[in-house]
Give the backbone structure.
Amino acid sequence: MMIALGVALLLAAAPEAKPEEPKQQAAVDAALKAVKVGDEKARKRAYASLWKLGVRVSLPDLDLYRSSNVETPDPATRPLALQGPGVLACPTPLWARQELAKVEANDGSGTQAQGVMFARSEQALSEGFLEDLGDERIPSVTGPVIVTRWSGSWGSLPCMLDGPPGSGWDLGMWRHPAARESLQRCCKGSAECIEQGRTGESDCRDEVLFTAATTSEKYATEAGKLLAERIRRCMPAGDAMDAEPACVYSDAPRCLRHRACMAKVGQESLARGTARWDVEAALWLRTSISACSANRAADTACTPIVVDACQGRVGYRCSDDSIRELQVP
């Protein structure tokens, strides 16, 4: 079900936040001038400076939990008349409208996007500019739009060892020597059973998953400490993170480096694996569950930094640390 929120009312935009200290203000003024007169490279450097100095376009918070049945629109979706600060002040504003869109499924999976459209006039703003969101893993929009937040979740049951029957098999369980040994023993040499994990008397696949879950629980503390140590050795100096970091944005460079280290540690652990369900097997299970979960969820964000209403430009920064510029026709 798609929910799109948008109205055509006027709301004066709050002024952009600006540092108070004289030195910081001088740096802000210099960066704003570079945005006004600089070429594309100079403007992007200026946007980066303004970001570090705390300058942002002030946008009201959307009500993420607002029901689609509410007749009164979310005030945060009203059109905004935006002006740039300092030398970027312009006789005519740049107009903007925010929108929230959701796609939800009965199994709990779905995607949610927040975006803001920019236009030279209020009349040029349209509703439903996130209508093409669908359930894709990469947000797709057309027109002068910045997707300010996008998140998706595609269910974590396949990553669980103790979930419904069969869940957890997508972790690639058969790759581990201990799992293969257990499967062959349960199947008693039956080629069909080894391929499908089933016999006429028992479900060998679920037996292997139960053993894996028991191993994971038994060695949870020891495997966690060992994993944290190996992750620390893998991560660049000064980039230390917990073994299971709470990454707000999945495309943040630091989190991508952590994910790469998790994959590396997992491959090395698999190479060390034996037919025993031991702490090394428990560590490999943790890396596999982490990779599976990461592949079934995503969260990205972009934040407008400053607008140049006269030139129709918006500088913004995204959670992958990139500095970008939107040109409004």
